[in-house]
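Fold it.
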Amino acid sequence: FLAAGPMLHVVGGSNEGYGRGMNTITSEVYSIYAPQQLAWPTTTLGWLNVYDWDKLHLDPAVASHATLDVQLCERMWPCHMDLNGHGGSLAIHAGSKVVCRLGSGCQKVTLSGIDVSCVEPASEPWLRTEGAVLRMASSSVSGCTSVADGGFIDARDGASVVVSRVSMQASSRGSAGAIYVSEASLLVSDSEFIDCSAAAYGGAISASGVLQVVNTTFVRCSAGAEGGSIFVAESYSDLVVSECEFVSCASVGGGGAI
């Protein structure tokens, strides 16, 4: 291994014999970037320089925008995404999303210290994970609306989602105003859901799988069908709710809170 500037050079070789005392030495050199702190990429070209071991960040002094459909671990995209906002903001535009599929090789997405705001309604949630890990902490989400289930997060097929110290205000024209979980696990702690709504089930959360909600507040959440704050598909779910508060939540059908 040789380090030169931001590059790491891997040098290797082999001794290939051809008989009759004649040998040929074959050498190879591979060059890759050492782990870096990179600004949030706003173009496809910018994502070409992002590797799994890099950490992305937002500049609090500059408005950052998400405009791309990023399918992690496909084409030129990296297989992990680790974004630390450092208190910076990210404006999400329609057509932008981040998808992490374990079947494609993506293993995790981590978000922390980020203030997310959605510029306009979207056809799908911004974050989607299938079988992979999603962690979100010390962040906020506001103004996000999705036509599909899940106003901001859609987790399926054995995914594991952990949300901690997050404030969310989101809505869906389907089910799950903020977080939709299907045959996956979700742990929410020390968070709040304010003015979340869904046209169908689960004003803030709709889940089938394992759901644990701890020390979390739901304020003015509503659903057009059932579960003003939380809807659980009872045939397929394991639910634990502890030390939570529900304030002025309502549903047209059953369960103004759950």
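The CA atoms of residues 149 and 199 lie 10 Å apart.
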